[in-house]
Amino acid sequence: MKRLVLVDDHPIMRHGLAQLIRAEDGLEVIGEAGSAREGLEVVGRLKPDLVVIDLTLPDKNGLELVKDIRAAHPATLCLVLSMHDEALYGERALRAGARGYVMKEAAADHLVTAIHKVIGGGLYVSATLNDRMLEQVSGAARSKATGMDSLTDRELEILELVGKGVATKNIAAQLSISARTVEAHRAHIKEKLGITDGAALVRYAVQWVESSAKM
């Protein structure tokens, strides 16, 4: 029996995922968490075989949680399940240490398959993302990253918080960094996205967060 933990800030989503997973022979959900902090604590206490992690958590980006789990509990596998576009986040999740990425809209059809593949030692991504990564490896798409793809994980996290209306001092507190560091990240984001002022950055961030929520 393979033991799983679910980390998602929506209780109804966790309940649905747990039912889906428990209906499969050989899989057992042994714990749940609604935040990154709670997730890391539950993983440390229960030592699951695999953790299914949402990217949008109230206290920390799911990518950072993946990194924390891989550093503290290297024997525990991570699988990201998110509403966010895999074209932007899929490769980032794998680089962070996750063994797979599944879009929430495809969970009913692909989550159990992804779990079995990851537990079996493989990687799981969609056919589209797999083709994209193979092209990059072959050199067919070895161009310099631009736009959103050029942002670091931390910059992407800050852009999302800006789009949610979180003030700089609150971003700093949530991410345990200084306000000056947040401002430096904002400056880098503006430069990479070709945005000239703070108001335009906020408008861009809000529109991006709203469009992501509609996916």
Structural features, described:
This protein is 56% helix and 12% strand. It has 215 residues and is an alpha/beta fold. Strands 2-1-3-4-5 form a 5-stranded parallel β-sheet, with helices on both faces. Strand 4, helix 4 and strand 5 form a beta-alpha-beta unit. The longest helix has 16 residues, at 198-213. The model has no long low-confidence stretch (mean pLDDT 90).
Q: Taking all residues together, what is the mean pLDDT?
A: 90
Order of helices and strands: EHEHEHEHEHHHHHH
Determine the oligomeric state from the structure.
Answer: single chain
Shape: globular
Total beta strand runs: 5
Helix residue percentage: 55-70%
Are there runs of 5+ residues with pLDDT below 50, and where? none
How far is it from the N-terminal to the C-terminal residue, by CA? Answer: 34 Å
Alpha carbon gyration radius = 18 Å
Strand order of the largest sheet: 2-1-3-4-5
Estimated share of beta-strand residues? 5-15%
How many helical stretches?
Answer: 10
